[in-house]
Automatic annotation (TrEMBL):
Signal peptide: none annotated. PROSITE patterns: HTH_TETR_2 (PS50977). InterPro entries: Homeodomain-like_sf, HTH-type_TetR-like_transc_reg, HTH_TetR, KstR_C. This is TetR family transcriptional regulator. The lineage of its organism: Bacteria, Bacillati, Actinomycetota, Actinomycetes, Kitasatosporales.
Length: 204
């Protein structure tokens, strides 16, 4: 498990130059994570290849947990942008399944990076890393939108949380080589059908 730094807030980039450095750090860390996996990525290597001082890196990302959770957050941010558009005849559950499957395929294209992001995200909940809550909220909001649930019930929210836990488990299984891509896709679709078919606005 990645080392968790002292509990202090990460700095937010403000100026265009700071934002460019921040983005460069994320891109370098994602590349190194895809090549080496979490345990073999060193913060000083990230700083060197991103062309920033190590103090700058730690100001934005106090630990590798913060760094790789931020990478996951940036990928999740793009999830809704690529989500299938739903017309009147579309099945919302299919739209959710396709969105999760697209993200799954993208993550499994670089399994070492996917493992680094998932491991860091799990650790981040205990460390109260800001991005961790944002990831969960963003995915939850995306699923609500795809389902057309503008006023979800408590049961709706619980069903979506159960779906996210199922998805995370299936991702980890696939990343670790315990499930094939075909099995993972079939089980993601099944989880969507079983759990989301019980939502409040499901057809009678």
């Amino acid at each position: 498990m990645p080392r968790i730094a002292e509990d202090r807030p990460a700095a937010e980039p403000q100026s265009p130059g700071q934002k460019a450095r921040h983005e460069r750090i994320l891109n370098v860390a994602a590349r190194l994570g895809a090549e080496r996996g979490l345990e073999h990525v060193q913060m000083h290597d990230v700083a060197k290849e991103a062309g920033v001082a190590i103090a700058t890196l730690y100001r934005y990302f106090p630990s590798k947990t913060h760094l790789f959770t931020a990478i996951m957050a940036s990928q999740v941010e793009r999830m809704s942008e690529g989500s299938p558009r739903i017309d009147a005849a579309a099945d919302p559950v299919d739209a959710v399944a396709e969105t999760l499957l697209r993200s799954t395929r993208h993550m499994l294209h670089t399994p070492r990076l996917a493992g680094a992001m998932m491991q860091s995200n799990f650790a981040a909940h205990a460390a109260t890393v800001t991005e961790a809550a944002g990831i969960e909220a963003k995915v939850h909001h995306t699923v609500l939108g795809l389902l057309g649930l503008s006023e979800p019930t408590d049961r709706d929210n619980r069903l979506i949380r159960l779906l996210m836990k199922s998805w995370h488990g299936l991702l980890v299984s696939a990343i670790n080589g315990h499930s094939s891509m075909s099995e993972t896709e079939t089980e993601i679709r099944l989880a969507c059908e079983v759990l989301l078919g019980a939502r409040s606005n499901a057809p009678e």
